[in-house]
Amino acid sequence: MQDSRRRNGLRTATWSVSLGLVLGLIPVIAGQTAMAGDFQAGMAAYQRGDFAGAIGEWQPLAESGDAEAQFNLGNLYFSGKGFAIDRKTAISWWERAAEAGLAKAQHNLASIYISANGETQDYAKAVAWLTRAAEGGLHRSQYTLGKMYEYGLGVGRDFERMAELYRLAAEAGFHRAQYNLGKAYRDGHGVDQDIEQAAAWFLRSARQGYAKAQSHIARRLAKGEGIAPDPIEAYKWYSLAIAQGETGLADSLAALRASLSPEDIAEAERRVAAFQSVAE
Fold first, then answer.
1. Which pLDDT does position 121 carry in this prediction?
2. CA–CA separation, 210 vs 174, rounded Å?
3. Contacts with 169 (C-beta within 8 Å, 6 or more apart), sequence order
4. Are 89 and 77 in contact (CB under 8 A)?
5. What is the pLDDT of residue 8?
6. What is the Cα–Cα distance from 181 to 190, expressed in whole angstroms?
7. What angle do CA 98, 100, 106 make, to 5 degrees?
8. What is the DSSP letter of 154?
9. In the chain, where do the E strands start and end?
10. Confidence at residue 38, expressed as pLDDT on a 0 to 100 scale
11. In the chain, which residues have pLDDT < 50?
């Protein structure tokens, strides 16, 4: 029992580190602001690498309560552009923007509280900020909050709530959420098990170029699991997933290749070469 708990704890700890990378920080981006001229002048300076110029435009706006400027100043402090790196000050600016209701800032604070940094890691605070950002319609936060419910980090484990959050982000086109909703349908976690729905969501994510989803839909197309069998399409998706670094697929692709005619292989290779990701 103790070994099992240790393994589960290790998986959770490992996932929490990787989640910080998945969640990511939302960078400096243009936003809607009451003083658009000054803000956009700062954005123009930022885009040409003039960070001092950007600060000169954004600092007065931030101090006067402009949440977009506060958010961007936080990013500059966090990344050390125009300032020495100062994460405490970055967090302070993000907190001001977050309290004003800016979902991007709420998301960045959650990222800080999730990251495996002993000074700031606090899953409960991360969940609180993710909840506000998710309610504000930020799809990346909806997805990540779903992950928190899936693993029981800072909140009780709840597969139904997990699936609800994945669906919100998936229906908006967030590829990771589509893939994870597919897994929920595959396993019957938070939803009724449905292999056709699983395949449909894996396919939507795969079309956006997500390698994990490409490997999953390839297996289903090869076997006819939840979707009509199509060995040429299976070959295409296996090839695309392998090209992005997915492992453990080479034998499946080789076996599939051995079952296809030269004409079918040529068609599959043509589809691989022609593939372009599309929004789903």
1. 87
2. 10
3. 139, 140, 142, 143, 146, 176, 177
4. yes
5. 47
6. 10
7. 15
8. S
9. none
10. 85
11. 1-18, 20-22
pLDDT at 20 (0 to 100):
44
Q: Which amino acid is at 167?
A: R
Cα 140 to Cα 149: distance, rounded to the nearest angstrom? 15
Residue 187: CA count within 13 A, CB half-sphere: 12
Task: Supply the pLDDT for residue 120.
Answer: 78
Nearest in space to 185 (alpha carbons), one of 215, 206, 162:
162
Tokens read off for 97: 């923007």
* Residue 65 DSSP class: T
Within the chain, residue ranges assigned H as helices are: 2-23, 36-47, 51-63, 67-79, 87-99, 103-114, 123-135, 139-151, 159-171, 175-187, 195-207, 211-223, 231-243, 250-259, 262-274
Beta-carbon neighbour count of residue 66 at 10 Å? 24
Q: What is the pLDDT of residue 280?
A: 86
User: What does pTM read for this prediction?
Assistant: 0.86
CA–CA gap between residue 237 and residue 214 (Å, rounded): 5
Q: What are phi and psi of 239, to 5 degrees?
A: -65, -45
